[in-house]
Design brief:
- The chain is of the alpha+beta class.
- It folds into 2 domains: 112 residues, no CATH class; 133 residues.
- The protein is 44% helix and 17% strand.
- It contains 10 helices and 8 strands.
- Helix 2 packs across helix 5 and helix 4 runs antiparallel to helix 5.
- The longest helix has 15 residues.
C-alpha cells in the first residue's frame, strides 16, 4: 500500500485513510457476481460523493446535538474528507491491487461539492454516464455560487454556460415560510440571468415525471437527449434503485 494509508488515531486505534477505504470497497464489489457489478459501482460512486462532499450519512445510535443535526438523515461538515484528485493519485500508486478497475470507473461518475445525499443522486441521474444509467447531460456544478444584489447564493446543480440551474426540494418541503424564502431566492438568482427549475423527489422517482424533467432540461440547454434502447432504461432503473434508497 502507498505511504500514509493507515492513520493512527490513538495508541490502541488505527483507521484506513479515505482513499484506501474507497479502494477496499471497490475490491469487495469486484468479488460480487458480474450481473451485480454495475449496481455495486453506482453504490461505490455514492460513497465517493460523500467522501468528496460536505455531508455525512446518519448512523444508528447517535445522540444529543449530533442526532438533531441528522434529523434529515445526514449532517453537514465544514470540509470534505478527501477529493477526486487525492483518490486518483492514491489509486495510481496501487499498481494492480484488487478494486483499482472498479474504483476508476466509479470515479468517472463522482462530482465534488455535494451538500446532501439527494444532490448526489440528482447529479448521478442527470449527469451520470449512460453506461451506468445516467442521462449523460454535460457535467454540471454542485452548489454553484452566484453573486446577487443580496449576496452570494448557492444553486444545487447548475450549468453556468447554459444559464440553467436546479434546486432540489426535499420531501418534507411544505412550510409557507420556506416557499416564500426560496421564491425570493429564485428571483434573485433569476435576476443574474440563471433560470432555476425546482425538482421534487417524485420528479426523480416516477419515470414519466423524470422524462418530463429531462425534456425540459434538454430544451433549456439545447442538449439533445435521445434514448432508444430498452437496455438503457433497465440500467437507469437499477441506478435509481440505488441512489434513491434514502429518499430524503
Amino acid at each position: 500500500m502507498p505511504p500514509r494509508s493507515v492513520i493512527k488515531v490513538s495508541e490502541e486505534v488505527s483507521v484506513v485513510c479515505p482513499e484506501l477505504l474507497f479502494l477496499e470497497l471497490a475490491s469487495s464489489i469486484e468479488k460480487t457476481p458480474r450481473e451485480d457489478l454495475l449496481k455495486g459501482e453506482v453504490a461505490l460512486a455514492l460513497v465517493g460523493f460523500e467522501l468528496c462532499g460536505t455531508y455525512l450519512l446518519s448512523n444508528e445510535g447517535q445522540c444529543g446535538s449530533v442526532q438533531e443535526k441528522m434529523r434529515k438523515g445526514f449532517a453537514n461538515t465544514h470540509q470534505s474528507l478527501t477529493n477526486k484528485e487525492k483518490i486518483e493519485k492514491y489509486i495510481a500508486n496501487c499498481g494492480r491491487l484488487d478494486g483499482v478497475a472498479s474504483a476508476r470507473r466509479a470515479l468517472e461518475i463522482i462530482q465534488e461539492g455535494s451538500h446532501s445525499p439527494m444532490e448526489s443522486s440528482l447529479f448521478m441521474l442527470l449527469c451520470g454516464p449512460r453506461s451506468h444509467g445516467g442521462m449523460g447531460f454535460p457535467r454540471g456544478l454542485l452548489n454553484y455560487r452566484v453573486k446577487t444584489s443580496r449576496g452570494q447564493r448557492l444553486i444545487d446543480l447548475a450549468w453556468p454556460h447554459f444559464g440553467v440551474g436546479i434546486e432540489y426540494l426535499g420531501r418534507n418541503y411544505h412550510g409557507i415560510s420556506e416557499v416564500e424564502r426560496d421564491d425570493r431566492r429564485r428571483n434573485e438568482i433569476g435576476g443574474e440571468g440563471v433560470t432555476i427549475f425546482n425538482v421534487r423527489y417524485e420528479d426523480l422517482a416516477q419515470l414519466y415525471r423524470f422524462k418530463q424533467l429531462v425534456e425540459v432540461l434538454s430544451k433549456s440547454t439545447g442538449v439533445r437527449v435521445r434514448v432508444r434502447s430498452s437496455a438503457f432504461w433497465k440500467r437507469h432503473a437499477l441506478m435509481k434503485s440505488v441512489v434513491l434508497s434514502n429518499g430524503i
